Amino acid sequence: MIFFPFSFARFFLCVALGAVWLCLFSFARAETIPYKNAELRIDENVAVFSADYDLVFSAGQQEALTRGIPLYFMLEWKVTYPRWYWFDKTIINDRVPFRVSFLPLLQKYRVSSGLLSQDVASQEDAERLIGRISSRPLFLVDDLEKDARYVFSVRLRFDEEQMPPPFRLNTLRSREWKLTSQWLTLSFAP
Q: Which of 161, 179, 158, 156 is nearest to 77 (CA)?
């Protein structure tokens, strides 16, 4: 039988590593993006989502924008079918990207989503444009079973993976870069 003697050095090393891990974990928590209201309705076999998020860019994000670094946000959503005997079955899983950039010559902000883009005069208008999702069609209800209950989950978050590598280090260290909303869940039947 091999006996390992108790070592105070090993104990303090484990405590120090645990403290470092706890400090890193506390920085990784995200700042939340609150929402004021949200609605999922079905119009002519299309699920339409509307929400009003209270998005405010952090100081680091504002500085990155003025230096010419675009910011990326993601509206992530999924439709699941709850099952009592196993994990919920994911029916649809998708996302909608938003890109915000500053145009220094025009002194305007450009918000893009897919092929659509819009120029706005101020940063507050850009925040409002991303945060206010109005009647956005997301998926066809024909693909779902009739008379079944589904759960629609959605969140808005800052996508730090799209940042250039030097800024990605800042996003790992600072929680001001980790803007995200809580998952909002809505139950519906097609």
A: 156
Strand partners, 110: 101, 119
Which region, left, alpha or beta, applies to residue 114 given φ > 0 means left and ψ of -120 to 50 means alpha? left
Q: Which of 23-32, 73-82, 103-112, 156-165 has the least mean pLDDT? A: 23-32
Instruction: Look at the pTM and tell me if it is higher than 0.85.
Output: no
Beta strand pairing call for 89-103 and 71-81: antiparallel
Tokens of 27: 């920085």
- Dig out the tokens for 150 from the structure: 């589904």
The answer to whether 154 and 38 are in contact (CB under 8 A) is yes
User: What's the mean pLDDT when you consider all of the chain?
Assistant: 83
Residue 76's nearest CA partner among 161, 149, 189 is 161
